[in-house]
Design brief:
Length: 229
């Protein structure tokens, strides 16, 4: 009878052992699945990191392209023009305008008209009229030739005289005031006197008298001063 009890207990133990082994197998399968899931999650994380890095690179490239396409809000100023290197270069040379001799011009025209109009009456009329026109024109030419006005990169100069010439000059950097005087009909035609003062007061050091384009002369000197500053 004792042997029968032992035989009955053996199948139960075998069943329990089989269940335990099955549970162990299930646990091992679960651990393997967990490992697989962790591997999958790691691979997903790596892929997301790669995608984020690619997106960042693309954003940086787009920012660089946009910055290259946008114009510079503060462009570099253009280079300033320098005056000629040779200080003896003459930028302006002028004399008193013919429009500043209205009487002489009127006398020349009147003498020529009388000589032509009354040449049939007497030869003396033609001679005297022609002589008057020629002498007046000669005097006008000589008077204009006595004065020469020069503007150079670093100074302006007045030369006076026919044979023995006198010269006065002023450095452009020393000029403090530039005045323009225009009067009468010749002033309306652009003829005026340009006065240069170095002390900034009423005393005039150099004056270009009765020159045409007085405003243009003043602007030229101001530009030269701006280049030097």
């Amino acid at each position: 009878m004792a042997s029968t009890g032992d035989d009955d207990s053996d199948p139960d133990e075998c069943e329990r052992e089989g269940d335990d082994s099955e549970s162990d197998d299930n646990e091992s399968d679960d651990s393997e699945s967990d490992d697989n899931e962790s591997d999958d999650s790691e691979s997903d994380d790596n892929e997301s990191d790669d995608n984020e890095s690619e997106d960042e690179d693309e954003d940086e490239d787009e920012d660089e392209d946009e910055s290259a396409a946008l114009p510079d809000p503060f462009p570099a100023p253009p280079p300033r023009r320098k005056p000629p290197a040779n200080p003896a270069t003459v930028l302006y040379a002028g004399r008193p305008s013919l429009l500043s001799y209205p009487r002489s011009i009127t006398l020349i025209l009147a003498s020529a008209f009388v000589a032509w109009q009354y040449q049939d009456l007497s030869g003396w009329v033609l001679f005297l009229g022609s002589l008057s026109a020629v002498l007046t024109a000669a005097w006008l030419t000589v008077d204009r030739s006595r004065r020469l006005y020069l503007i150079m990169p670093i100074r302006l100069e007045i030369m006076e005289g026919l044979v023995a010439k006198n010269s006065r000059e002023v450095r452009i950097a020393d000029i403090r005031a530039i005045n323009i005087r225009k009067t009468g009909l010749k002033g309306l035609m652009g003829v005026g006197t340009v006065e240069f003062a170095t002390a900034g007061g009423d005393e005039i050091d150099v004056a270009f008298q009765d020159v045409y384009g007085a405003d243009r002369i003043k602007n030229l000197v101001r530009r030269l001063q701006d280049h030097d500053s």
